[in-house]
Amino acid sequence: MGEITGARIRVTRTVAWGETDAAGHNHFGAAFRWLEETEHALYRCLGFGSEMIDRVPRVHVEADYRLRLYYGDVIECQVGVVKVGSSSCTFALEVSKGGEVAITGNYVVVHVSANTEGSTPWPEEMRAALTSSASFAVAPVVEPGP
Predict the structure, then answer these.
(1) Are 53 and 97 a contacting pair, CB within 8 Å?
(2) Is the dihedral of CA 109, 114, 120, 126 positive or negative?
(3) pTM surpassing 0.85?
(4) Which of 17, 43, 53, 67 could cross-link with 102 by S-S, CB 3.0 to 4.6 Å?
(5) For residues 11 and 140, is the Cβ–Cβ distance under 8 A?
């Protein structure tokens, strides 16, 4: 996981049944769902509306899996800003269970306009929010385990 230098969020949730595979542990693709929902929660906490979501497509994602996660496990998903470029933003992802790191990764989004092709510079208010030291914790209802 890259060093977080900007805004960050930690979301507590449970591993859902549909996020596991035939072997009974987390499907690899679940990590990407978790990063997306955690990233979206960060945008909401920073005061950005849902219209921002289609303005920041992911252009690079990488993840390392270190620990299996099972249905009903309570996990913490952390997403934080590592670096903000003129139109890109690199985030770090960490998923942990009981203090043990299960998944780490980095990914890049690019700011785009609704009306033009290609990337566009970050609006100043978005850049300021992303590079701020804001830190949030969200604890939704935790489903009971098996």
Answers:
(1) no
(2) negative
(3) yes
(4) 67
(5) yes
Spatial separation of the C-alpha atoms in residues 57 and 44, rounded to whole Å: 16
Q: How many Cα atoms occupy the beta-carbon half-sphere of 124 within 13 Å? A: 0
| Helices of type H across the chain | 30-45, 124-131
Domain ranges of the chain: 8-138
List pLDDT tens digits, range 44-81.
999 998 878 888 999 999 999 999 999 999 999 999 99
Residue with token string 């542990």: 25
- Cβ burial of 85 (10 Å; 0-12, 13-18, 19+) is middle
